[in-house]
């Protein structure tokens, strides 16, 4: 399928990924600056914590959206997937650190009680732990080394995204449109996985043009 | 908000006041939206005057009170701690009068055991009450036991920081019960009814395992989803100034109110 956007010149592919990293950290950096200088209104620590969590979820959704966007719209943004996934991990890490250091101020008894007794925190913490092996293997060396096992391991991202959306919905007093939006997005992206192969086969047959099957395409991390 | 005269009272917490800016910009008032900034941002179209509060139910003299009459009660300034069920807190200089003085005027009957309160319903002025997504059923309702309602700490507030109440804080008249979680402090009250049975309370009905009828501030009874042992004082310390402090039983008013609950298991009646 022809892309409806002009193609990015190849020499800009690398720099555009670094630009994504740079832009990706802007929300955290600006909120940290505002918070540290006392310019975040109200409950500064909570605002910061929530902002980090929300951006983590956004980057997770963006990571999962790369494949359907290519399948449906012919936009190949696979080169950004690793950066988006790692940004999601860094935001979850910062979200966790903000909770530990700024919110709880390392009051370990209350942190342990939170993790053990509060399902939404248990779920969030589990998602964070599951993200660590994914972040550690988000490099070319690991992809080569692990082969097919890498693909298997990185399927965990679906579970992590579901846990993230659930964690968000369970953390609020009333589940509102914002929580529903992320639950719906993650549900759609999860649903795409089983639909994808039959959909691509159906489209290939319909157009009568031979395309490489998705299974033979190389994962790009 | 217009200037409002009030005499000083002995009910003054000896702690730093939460800045007016925070008191009037960080609010839970779902009638204007569920975000903390929504009430300040979206309450501009709300008209707190004219206003009447209907007082009825098990009383000898049911009647309506106009706002002007309510403002003629002897107004006092009271500096109270305000502890939200979400584990944050403020210190607020309210202006108001004891609820008991209002109740005296309507002469509660001997059969009255509880006081029920209702917030106004005005979807055209309160954006959170219209549209596809409604976080709670309206009107917002709250209730107290009659002895809690008559306690000298319980006030109807008509102002804060020397001025009439801003819309986002519950203009023109709201309840303040400093030893209970903030959601008990029902805002923009239009009706007060005395009843024989426990009145329906909005959050209690929405999630009975999370929000009890009593909702007394209690560091020993956690909310199912978070600890109530500590609280964040709003507008203090920012990121690094240690602003998490221990929550006090009955929000620090145990000497005055603990006797109301003698013999009750507060982990059951939370």
Automatic annotation (TrEMBL), chain A:
NCBIfam families: PRK05419.1-5. Belongs to the MsrQ family. It holds the Pfam family Ferric_reduct. This is Protein-methionine-sulfoxide reductase heme-binding subunit MsrQ. Part of the MsrPQ system that repairs oxidized periplasmic proteins containing methionine sulfoxide residues (Met-O), using respiratory chain electrons. Thus protects these proteins from oxidative-stress damage caused by reactive species of oxygen and chlorine generated by the host defense mechanisms. MsrPQ is essential for the maintenance of envelope integrity under bleach stress, rescuing a wide series of structurally unrelated periplasmic proteins from methionine oxidation. It is a multi-pass membrane protein. The chain crosses the membrane at residues 12-34, 54-72, 84-102, 118-136, 156-174, 180-196. It comes from the Bacteria. Binds 1 heme b (iron(II)-protoporphyrin IX) group per subunit. Heterodimer of a catalytic subunit (MsrP) and a heme-binding subunit (MsrQ). The keyword Transmembrane helix applies. Its main location: membrane. One of its GO terms (biological process) is protein repair. InterPro entries: Fe3_Rdtase_TM_dom, MsrQ-like. One of its GO terms (molecular function) is oxidoreductase activity, acting on diphenols and related substances as donors. Its cofactor is heme b; FMN. It comes from Sinorhizobium sojae CCBAU 05684. Keywords: Cell membrane, Electron transport, Flavoprotein, FMN, Heme, Iron, Membrane, Metal-binding, Transmembrane, Transmembrane helix, Transport. The gene is msrQ. One of its GO terms (cellular component) is plasma membrane.
From TrEMBL, chain B:
GO terms for biological process: protein repair. Residues 47-203 form the Oxidoreductase molybdopterin-binding domain. Binds 1 Mo-molybdopterin (Mo-MPT) cofactor per subunit. It catalyses: L-methionyl-[protein] + a quinone + H2O = L-methionyl-(S)-S-oxide-[protein] + a quinol; L-methionyl-[protein] + a quinone + H2O = L-methionyl-(R)-S-oxide-[protein] + a quinol. Keywords: Metal-binding, Molybdenum, Oxidoreductase, Periplasm, Signal. The keyword Metal-binding applies. Its cofactor is Mo-molybdopterin. It holds the Pfam family Oxidored_molyb. It comes from the Bacteria. Mo-molybdopterin binds at residues 27, 30-31, 84, 119, 169, 174, 185-187. Heterodimer of a catalytic subunit (MsrP) and a heme-binding subunit (MsrQ). Belongs to the MsrP family. This is Protein-methionine-sulfoxide reductase catalytic subunit MsrP.
């Amino acid at each position: 399928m022809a892309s409806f956007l002009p193609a990015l010149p190849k020499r800009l592919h690398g720099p555009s990924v670094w630009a994504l990293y740079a832009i990706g950290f802007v929300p955290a950096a600006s909120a940290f600056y505002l918070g540290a200088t006392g310019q975040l209104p109200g409950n500064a620590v909570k605002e910061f914590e929530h902002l980090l969590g929300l951006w983590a979820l956004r980057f997770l959704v963006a990571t999962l959206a790369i494949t359907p966007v290519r399948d449906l719209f012919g936009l190949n943004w696979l080169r950004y997937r690793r950066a988006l996934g790692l940004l999601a991990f860094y935001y979850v890490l910062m979200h966790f650190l903000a909770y530990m250091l700024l919110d709880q101020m390392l009051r370990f008894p209350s942190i342990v009680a939170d993790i053990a007794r509060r399902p939404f925190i248990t779920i969030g913490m589990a998602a964070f732990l599951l993200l660590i092996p994914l972040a550690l293997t988000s490099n070319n060396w690991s992809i080569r080394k692990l082969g097919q096992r890498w693909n298997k391991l990185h399927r965990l991202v679906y579970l992590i995204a579901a846990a993230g959306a659930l964690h968000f919905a369970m953390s609020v007093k009333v589940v509102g449109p914002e929580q529903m939006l992320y639950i719906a997005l993650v549900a759609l992206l999860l649903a795409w996985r089983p639909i994808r192969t039959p959909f691509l086969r159906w489209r290939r047959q319909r157009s009568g043009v031979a395309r490489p099957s998705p299974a033979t395409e190389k994962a790009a991390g | 908000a217009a200037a409002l005269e009030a005499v000083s009272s002995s009910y003054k917490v000896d702690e730093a006041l939460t800045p007016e800016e925070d008191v009037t910009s960080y609010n839970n008032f779902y009638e204007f939206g569920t975000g903390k900034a929504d009430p300040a941002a979206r309450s501009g179209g709300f008209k707190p005057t004219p206003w009447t509060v209907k007082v009825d139910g098990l009383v000898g003299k049911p009647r309506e009170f106009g706002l002007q009459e309510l403002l003629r009660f002897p107004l006092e300034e009271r500096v109270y701690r305000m502890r939200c069920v979400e584990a944050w807190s403020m210190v607020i200089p309210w202006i108001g009068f004891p609820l008991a003085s209002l109740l005296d005027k309507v002469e509660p009957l001997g059969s009255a055991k509880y006081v029920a309160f209702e917030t106004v319903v005005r979807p055209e002025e309160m954006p959170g009450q219209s549209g596809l997504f409604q976080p709670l059923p309206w009107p917002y309702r709250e209730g107290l036991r009659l002895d809690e309602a008559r306690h000298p700490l319980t006030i109807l507030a008509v102002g804060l920081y020397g001025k009439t109440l801003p819309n986002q804080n519950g203009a023109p008249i709201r309840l303040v019960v400093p030893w209970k979680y903030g959601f008990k402090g029902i805002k923009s009250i239009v009706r007060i009814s005395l009843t024989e049975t426990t009145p329906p309370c909005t959050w209690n009905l929405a999630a009975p395992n999370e929000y009890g009828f009593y909702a007394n501030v209690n560091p020993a009874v956690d909310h199912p989803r978070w600890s109530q042992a500590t609280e964040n004082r709003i507008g203090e310390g920012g990121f690094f100034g240690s602003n998490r402090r221990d929550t006090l039983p009955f929000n620090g008013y145990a000497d005055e109110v603990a006797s109301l609950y003698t013999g009750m298991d507060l982990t059951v009646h939370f």
